[in-house]
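re: ur question from earlier - yeah i can do the single chain one, its not a big deal. heres the input i used so u can compare w yours
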Amino acid sequence: MTRVVEIAFDVVCPYAYLASTQIEAIAQRTGAAIVWEPILLGGVFRAIGQVDDPNATMSAAKRAHTERDLRRWAEHFGVALSRRADHPRRSVLAMRAICATAESDRPKAIHALFAAYHARGEDIADPVVVQRALDASALDGAALVARTDDATIKDDLRARTARAVERGVFGVPAMFVEGELYWGQDRLDWVEDALRRA
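and the output i got, formated as tokens:
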């Protein structure tokens, strides 16, 4: 039986980005398959009664610490990190584009959009940016962006978000191994241990 790690994510979240840069290596080391679960983090927050943008209610001290923490983790993982002054940007277009992507190509779309926002600081709320990032990953960016208006794509993303809330997701990255939830890029060691035991 194949080991499986499910990862619920929204490309707007820098911690989900950090986890996305490591999860495939963990899967390879453990012989696990990855199931990517695109969700809307804002939808999760609304469902659980949290403010849409927790950054807006952070103290100055916590905000400064979060910025240092993100840079430390990026350095630890050896990945690029660019922080936009207007973070968070709306990610609904990007997340719908990921849902519109064929499952076999979905990892390419995911990494392309994570990199656009978090490695290069591009605006994932801009359809031109989303199309260009997808095109650069050998996907049909124009077709995928066009499909973001389809009712089936919108419903799919809503349903995925609702299922995540039902499973106890309250933030991202949220990773599941054999039904057990692990939250945050700082729990990746635990995810790997769980996969080895599975």
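The chain has one domain: 3-197. not sure if urs matches, ping me
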